[in-house]
Design brief:
- It contains 15 helices and 20 strands.
- It is an alpha/beta fold and about 450 residues long.
- The strands form four sheets. The protein has a six-stranded parallel β-sheet, sandwiched between helices. The chain has a six-stranded mixed β-sheet with strand order 15-16-20-17-18-19.
- Bound molecules: adenosine-5'-triphosphate (ATP), uridine-5'-diphosphate and magnesium ion.
- Pathway: Cell wall biogenesis; peptidoglycan biosynthesis.
- Keywords: ATP-binding, Cell cycle, Cell division, Cell shape, Cell wall biogenesis/degradation, Cytoplasm, Ligase, Nucleotide-binding, Peptidoglycan synthesis.
Length: about 450
Amino acid sequence: MIALFWELIPSKTMNLSILYTLFKNSTGVSTDTRKIAKGNLFFALKGPNFDANSFAPTALEMGASAVVIDDIAYFVEDDERYFFAEDSLKMLQDLANHHRKQLTIPIIGLTGSNGKTTTKELMKAVLSKKFKTAATDGNLNNHIGVPLTLLTITEEDEIALVEMGANKQGDIAELCQIAEPTHGMITNIGKAHLEGMGGPEGVLKTKTELFQFLRENGRTVFINSQDPILSNFVKRFENPVLYPSHGDFCEVIFQEANPFVKFSLGGEEEVFLTHLIGAYNFGNIATALTIGKFFGVEVEKAVEAIVNYQPSNMRSQLLEKRSNLIILDAYNANPSSMEVAIRTFGQMTGKKHKMLILGDMFELGEHAVTEHARLGEIISEYEIEKVCFTGQLIASALATYPKALFFPDTFSFRNWLQDSNLEDYLILIKGSRGMKLEGLVDFI
Ligand code: ATP
Ligand code: UDP
Ligand code: MG
């Protein structure tokens, strides 16, 4: 029986040194035949929809240099481009960590409940003024995305930014083991993915796994000393770099957010206007400027990078429709990003009328009713002429804000919007990704 088992294992079972050679001779790594490029090394991963072992022939047809599969049924013994691993995903992660170990450049890890991608993009803009900067592409921040990101870092790169996301406890610790960041920061700790992480305590534990890695390994940490949760960690590090103010080293001062954030620098009069909406973006800006200063980017160039940065992909984008100004924040939503968005919108001025459009927040599990109801309480603190709720879960907010107009589905809401012929409105649209609230814009 044992003999038979060994006979079944392909002769080309993978080891790391063979794999690294294959990687070095490839044009990069791919896990997706829909996006594969010629000469890529293909890793067949299993997901909720597909088992990519079955795509190995397609990957090769499309020009893959080799394929790593983990289901023996798909192994082709006499094709030298096939390699067998016990677990393709683990192999991908091991390869990424092996590659990372060859690198001697700063690797900056960042996580947090909100603002990771925005902060990463701002840091990239700033650091690119001085360094060849590698960074996570878009939102590739999980157990597959982080390895893929690491494998895009080349010998020419001088610094790298790695966004790390989490769905459950232990995720960030695992990503730290793979990426081994030399520097790191947490944007904030809020109420996101409450369901998977075991409530607010779980979120705190998960996100601070990055701090734990940095502390245990004597790495450099950047801490937002104005954040009520993160500031508690300052004393646990020997030499933390603080923002938005670290004495004379770097002081970033918030001016206003109506709707765009304006900031100034310590000891200087000039006020800089950004394209970023909402007071919550100030922390993201301060992080990027502090990192820039730390790594020796000239202050004028760093400020220029921030001032020119344009947010994209529905992350607090400003759109104009006739006489209306729309803040489209339909990329995602969770209790903490909703709260800061409502508060910042509540204080905005500039149009005759104001309308708040909120949709469901997902992934809250048992916290769904209370967290949606809390939104109503927050809205009540401000004078907002029209408030509209759309979705199912958000119905819980009617208990705390009964004045709101309620549309159980976006279809009925669209018709209402179209008939309303809104003019001279400032409008905020925010909801979870699954709500696809961006579809409403066409009807305003
Ligand atoms: P994901 O978990 O999807 O990777 P992320 O942490 O990368 O999200 P971003 O994509 O940068 O976050 O921003 C998503 C939304 O979060 C923004 O549109 C904005 O509404 C909100 N947001 C951004 N920065 C902050 C912040 N510092 N605090 C609270 N909310 C924020
Ligand atoms: N995949 C692929 N080609 C396809 C469809 C999927 O290579 O035509 C890969 C995909 O990139 C992932 C794996 O198969 O690595 C598992 O796919 P998943 O179940 O996650 O589905 P997806 O959400 O990617 O469609
Ligand atoms: Mg992100």
